[in-house]
Every structure is written in structure tokens, then in C-alpha cells.
Amino acid sequence: MNRAEALRLLGLDDDATLDEIKTAYKETAQILHPDKFAGNRKLQKRAEEQFKNLQEAYEALSRGGSGSKARSSARSSSHSRVVELESKLRGIAAARVQLQQQRDAFIDRRRTGLMLLIGGAVAALFARWRIPWLAGLGGAVAFWGGFDAFTAHRSVGDLTKQINNLNNEKKQILAELEELE
Length: 181
Hints:
By secondary structure, the protein is mostly helical. About 85% of the residues lie in helices and about 0% in strands.
């Protein structure tokens, strides 16, 4: 790809500076990135082709007259690492959303279990002398609610640990991205 084609693809003029090239590349990459079209395989395939063209244009412009092949290769390697880390960040964000939804469901389940425990215990106490079978049923409901609340509470704790691990991993990736940029 020649300089004129690359500039046209990025929407830049002939006198574009390296900073303008980088900015145009980053903006266009955000628009065309294939991961944005994960739900539609046809669009994702087209975005992959466009993204490859975009990368080729950026490489042609960033190395054109600005230094040795070694620096260009290092820039390309650094750029691919940035793309990889950004992809990991998107994966972490998606996983975090799923874990939070699961945790919220278990929090609701824990709350329901506690309500069953309290309601069953109250029913068992009040029905103890007058309606023995209702007292037995209340005791069973209380036991079941307590057990469900306990297991849900453990799941909430496990999911919270996983979310915290993802948050720590995100911090590490963000720190590495800052070093690369």
C-alpha cells in the first residue's frame, strides 16, 4: 500500500504528522474493530478485512521515512500487544458483568432463604400447641430456607472473590497499557 492510499484510508491530508496519523488510526480502529461485531459473523468478517487494511495503512505511514525497520517492527510488536491487552480488557468486562449478574441472583436467593427461615420458624412457634402438623411444616420450611440461605451466601462469597480477581487483573493490564503508550 502506498502513502496516498494509506492517507485516504485514514482520511488524512498529504501533510499529516505522525501524531495525526496515530490519532486517526486509534479513532478508526475503535470504529472498525471486529470484536464490536461479535454477534454478527458476516459483519465481523468484513470488519476483520477492513481492520487489516487499516493496520497495513498505519504501518505504511508510521514507518515511511521515520526510521529503521527495527523500530517499525518494535512499534508493530508494541501495537499488537496493545490490541491483545485491549481484547483481554473486553473479555474481563464481559466476564465481570456475568459474575455480577450471578452474584445478584444469589443475593436474591439468600434473601428469600432468610425470609423462609424466619417465616417458617414463626409459624412453627405459633402453631406448636394448636396445630401440630402446621408446626412440623413450619419447621421444615425454616430448615429448608436456612439451608438455601447458607448455600447462597457461600456462592455470593465465591463470586465476589472471582470479581475481585478480575478487578486486580484489569488493574495489571491497565498498568501495562500505560507503559506501552
